[in-house]
Specification:
The chain is α/β, with parallel strands linked by helices and about 230 residues long. It has helices at about 15-30, 50-60, 75-85, 100-110, 125-140, 165-170, 185-190, 200, 205-220, and strands spanning about 5-10, 40-45, 70, 90-95, 115-120, 150-155, 175-185. InterPro entries: CobQ/CobB/MinD/ParA_Nub-bd_dom, DNA_Partitioning_ATPase, P-loop_NTPase.
Length: about 230
């Protein structure tokens, strides 16, 4: 089955989800034809509209903007219609809101590949416990285990041991820990100020290298290289 919808989701805010979504969308949006798709669309479900506003900056600084569609919390039916209209020639990346809502749950259920960024802070475990409950409820609706791909994000560059959060992630069947670790880098903030990805700001930076590694991991696990979803 072909991967058409990739969603970044977490019911907890402050995990760097929208920043990661932006960087993935800009860079993967340049490659969608190489993946075998004819169209690329970004869906902004976050009520803070972070990606939508960054896209406006992108246009102001002369960069080609993303094609973005937005749905508000009271437009579940419209989102459902949009999802049903997606064909095999279209790749969609969704930035869901950092809270629990019907719209965000629908995005998770409809997705072929879900990414959940978390930091190494011990408090993240409480957020993941709540998210685990949501995934359990969605699994009952979908009649299969809903799994998300967890990415350690905004990690202190000096931090080497984050075993507490890793051990918790590995114990839960709904969570699959990604190999890539994204560290806290000032380049993320600087690049967004211009509507750039970190790779567009500086291809040789550590942030750029980490995002590139994450994209390669997503390509492999989501089957984007061969046009099929990896089971």
């Amino acid at each position: 089955m072909k991967t058409n919808i990739i969603t970044l989701a977490h019911q907890k805010g402050g995990t760097g989800k929208s920043t990661m979504a932006w960087n993935l969308a800009v860079e993967m949006g340049k490659k969608y034809k190489k993946y075998g798709y004819k169209k690329f669309i970004f869906v902004d479900l976050d009520n803070q509209e972070s990606v939508t506003m960054t896209n406006r900056l992108r246009m102001q600084y002369g960069q080609d903007p993303l094609e973005i569609v937005r749905f508000t919390d009271d437009e579940r039916n419209k989102l459902e219609d949009f999802i049903n209209s997606i064909d095999d020639d279209t790749l969609v990346i969704i930035d869901s809101g950092g809270y629990d809502a019907d719209l965000n749950r629908l995005a998770i259920i409809a997705s072929d590949f879900v990414i959940t960024p978390v930091s190494s802070d011990y408090m993240e475990i409480f957020g993941l416990q709540k998210f685990k409950t949501i995934l359990e409820e969605l699994s009952e609706i979908k009649k299969e285990t809903v799994r998300v791909n967890v990415v350690l994000n905004k990690i202190d560059p000096k931090l080497k041991d984050f075993s507490d959060i890793v051990d918790f992630i590995n114990e839960i069947e709904h969570f699959k820990l990604c190999d890539t670790v994204i560290r806290f880098r000032s380049d993320y903030k600087h690049s967004i100020g211009y509507g750039f990805s970190v790779r567009e700001l500086d291809k040789k930076s550590k942030a750029s290298e980490e995002i590139s590694i994450l994209i390669k991991e997503i390509e492999k696990k989501a089957g984007l290289k061969n046009g099929k979803k990896k089971k």
